[in-house]
Design brief:
The chain is mostly helical. It contains 15 helices and no strands. Helix 2 runs antiparallel to helix 3, helix 4 (70-105) runs antiparallel to helix 12 and helix 8 (179-212) packs antiparallel against helix 14 (337-379). The chain starts with a helix and ends with a helix. The model is unreliable at 98-114, 116-121, 160-171 and 365-386 (pLDDT under 50).
Length: 386
């Protein structure tokens, strides 16, 4: 929310660059933290800067292209999906090399030396980590983010182009009659959508191993196909968004997620159905978030505060729903609680979107009718109008 307020009153490129610098600094510091308090503080700063990025990037796309920026919005969120696929692979490579190094030296450790090193490390707040591969993993990602921030600061220096774009977006500003109601409904829409997406992506591995009885390698492949189809469909959505309206893409996504989650619940023990429905579910969930932002921009101009409001809804769904499902799954281990959650969220979003569409289009239809009446009256002669 703080990021949304700042983006309404400050230069957007500068804020994005500054938040990326803070993110990079957090990534550099995390491996060196040796106390819990310092690690929590660093992670809080890191999370706040990522929250500003999450809000500001969406606001920047809307400020530059407005309701014509659907392909650009899809490209922005495709980069998130691509990072979600690549980052675990890079981390796995780093940790595998670390594990192999530990296996070679495991028989050579001395308990006295271990106690001395632990005492020495507990006395210091910052210290070089023992796992250098993990350090290089954090440092490489932080350096990448730092390089991107340089380009954003370069765009900040181009004040003339920024002023032209801001004046153009200000001229095209509009506000729907039910602006606040639409934002509240969109808050709920993203709350359940993101919560279901993160819940399934987080628990599909444990669900497949415990409930279905899959091997760990097969369950890992199921997790990969979910995020793989998710990323692939977001990449294809960049091209689909050039000729499909955001509302059409949301409806197609709702139909796909509703059908796939229904089959997941119906055939929860069938491995073949689990593979097919998981891939369809991942593809269906891919375009909903960027399409929702592009859709609402057609009817009401989003400011930084507005964008921050529904991003908070998505973040709360990301936190709350997986935590609650984890607790419920422990109480009811024989039931596919994860699948019930996905089906319930799909039903809720499928019902909620027509309500939002009705609220968004009714004021516009009335305005168009009023404009047509006034234009017809102007075209008539004075005697006819009398």
């Amino acid at each position: 929310m703080i990021g949304g307020v700042l983006f309404d009153h400050m230069n957007q490129f500068f804020l994005l660059g500054a938040s990326m610098v803070a993110t990079a600094v957090g990534l550099y510091l995390i491996p060196f933290c040796k106390t819990v308090v310092l690690l929590i503080t660093t992670m809080c700063v890191f999370g706040a800067s990522v929250g500003v990025l999450d809000t500001g990037a969406n606001v920047l796309i809307l400020a530059l292209w407005g309701d014509k920026g659907a392909p650009h919005m899809q490209a922005l969120h495709f980069s998130f999906a691509l990072g979600a696929v690549l980052a675990p692979l890079l981390a796995k490579l780093a940790w595998d090399t670390t594990a192999s190094a530990q296996n070679h030296t495991e028989s050579d450790f001395d308990p006295l030396m271990l106690n001395r090193s632990s005492k020495a490390s507990s006395d210091s707040v910052f210290a070089v980590p023992d796992d250098m591969n993990l350090l290089w993993a954090y440092a490489s990602i932080g350096t990448y983010i730092l390089v991107v921030s340089v380009f954003l600061f370069g765009l900040f220096c181009k004040k003339s182009s920024k002023q032209k774009k801001s004046s153009a977006s200000a001229q095209g500003a509009r506000r729907a009659k039910y602006h606040r109601a639409l934002l509240c409904l969109l808050f709920l829409f993203f709350f359940f959508y993101v919560g279901a997406e993160v819940t399934y992506g987080s628990y599909v591995f444990s669900f497949a191993t415990t409930h279905v009885g899959m091997e760990e390698s097969e369950a890992a492949g199921l997790n990969s196909i979910f995020w793989g189809t998710f990323a692939a469909c977001r990449g294809l959505a960049i091209f689909f968004a050039t000729f499909l309206k955001p509302a059409t893409m949301i409806v197609l996504s709702n139909i796909g997620s509703l059908a796939s989650s229904f089959f997941l619940v119906l055939f929860d023990k069938n491995s073949l159905c689990l593979w097919i429905a998981t891939s369809v579910y991942g593809a269906s969930m891919a375009t909903t978030f960027p399409s929702g932002i592009s859709w609402i921009e057609q009817y009401t101009t989003l400011t930084g505060k507005s964008a921050a409001f529904f991003v908070i809804g998505a973040s709360l769904g990301d936190m709350a729903i997986p935590a609650v499902i984890g607790i419920l799954q422990e109480y009811y281990p024989d039931l596919p609680v994860v699948l019930y959650t996905c089906l319930g969220s799909a039903i809720f979003t499928a019902v909620l979107f027509p309500v939002m569409y009705k609220l968004a289009t009714l004021p516009l239809q009335r305005q168009h009718k009023g404009r047509r009446k006034s234009e017809d009256q102007k075209a008539l002669p004075t005697s006819s109008r009398l």
